[in-house]
Amino acid sequence: xxxxxxxxxxxxxxxxxxxxxxxxxxxxxxxxxxxxxxxxxxxxxxxxxxxxxxxxxxxxxxxxxxxxxxxxxxxxxxxxxxxxxxxxxxxxxxxxxxxxxxxxxxxxxxxxxxxxxxxxxxxxxxxxxxxxxxxxxxxxxxxxxxxxxxxxxxxxxxxxxxxxxxxxxxxxxxxxxxxxxxxxxxxxxxxxxxxxxxxxxxxxxxxxxxxxxxxxxxxxxxxxxxxxxxxxxxxxxxxxxxxxxxxxxxxxxxxxxxxxxxxxxxxxxxxxxxxxxxxxxxxxxxxxxxxxxxxxxxxxxxxxxxxxxxxxxx
Length: 314
What we know:
314 residues, mainly alpha, 17 helices, 64% helix
């Protein structure tokens, strides 16, 4: 099927989307995007969301799938859910050309959901800046606008807490204070974000707090703490995470197993191999994936570990 034929089908809101045809939209040339622009306004908003969701799934499963130009085009869509999906789709894109639209969306987009997505996406660039992958002028800009968002009392709590998570890799004195203030907040969601940010800061000063939260009665907090341990990458946290391999909360259980795989080491490998013998199918699947992560880490040393990993949903 040619692109023109597929776009005709795409524009027909009554025709079901077929996953088999999605690769027609991969690696689009400028002239292909021009054709898409012609039909895009006539496509139903729900259909657009469905399409982008499928493209995101496909790009995760297929290394040959490349939809970045299409996702960038969708940043300007009139529907906020489409714009948010487009930001999600660009998660692996680390070109500095994306900075300006993300900052603009964080500051000006009327949708809270889009502003939150933009803040989280800027967190990826904050992490890249700490390993020398960003220009100095961009580093200052990223931190400046995230800090402005955090300090904006008129901004929603949801957007502010995502900005706190995003700014954490800078780990300067003012950022540390922001994390501490969030941790003692009366709002539980703010405390969740504080613990997540502690992990992203990679600052050992927070380890006692994170380890204490692994024992929190609140499963959502245990989940955040286990994610933070994985981001920290400190082997002494492994025994504490192993204790969560049989946690009553599924997300916490899987998060702890994944964190052990990310941290690595002999104890981590032994614990994951033992987990493979479990009668719990969810734990076995998580352990298999964690072992793959651990073995990949043994083969190559990656200086960008965790930079491109989206925030796990809770």
